[in-house]
Specification:
The protein has one domain. The protein contains four helices and two strands, in the order H-H-H-E-E-H. A two-stranded antiparallel sheet has the order 1-2. The longest helix has 59 residues.
């Protein structure tokens, strides 16, 4: 027994004939190219922020804890020797509260905040990269 639509069943995997298919493929190509560019940008930003965020966090926390650590050392050194106390207090006073590089001012708190913001940017870029990959 032959099926009544045998020719249609054999051609169901072929693209439709005519003009709209060529326009559709160009539009799809442009969409995939745009998604690929966005995916690259989001993934690149994610990689850079994942590299720099822990560094900024460690620098900020270390810079914030260092004066307290030296203060603790100076209290124990005060009972030992007056010259040692003077040296430790001099070292503690040389730690800057802020560093200005060009027009940017860095503090321990700003480094920690920048690290946290970079972690948030990495999470956002990971989400957007996953959406862009799904659209491709």
């Amino acid at each position: 027994m032959d099926s009544f639509n045998g020719d249609r069943a054999a051609n169901r995997f072929l693209p439709p004939e005519g003009g709209p298919s060529s326009r559709f493929s160009v539009a799809r190509l442009v969409r995939v190219a745009a998604c690929a560019v966005f995916y690259f940008l989001f993934y690149f930003v994610q990689q850079v922020t994942e590299l720099l965020a822990p560094l900024l966090l460690i620098l900020g926390v270390g810079w914030g804890v260092l004066p307290h650590l030296i203060g603790a050392i100076s209290t124990t050194a005060a009972s030992a020797d007056p010259q040692t106390r003077d040296i430790v207090s001099h070292v503690a006073s040389t730690i800057p509260q802020q560093v200005a590089i060009g027009s940017h001012v860095f503090t321990a708190g700003s480094l920690v905040m920048d690290g946290l913001l970079m972690m948030a940017a990495a999470a956002l870029c990971a989400t957007l990269a996953a959406i862009a990959a799904r659209e491709m």
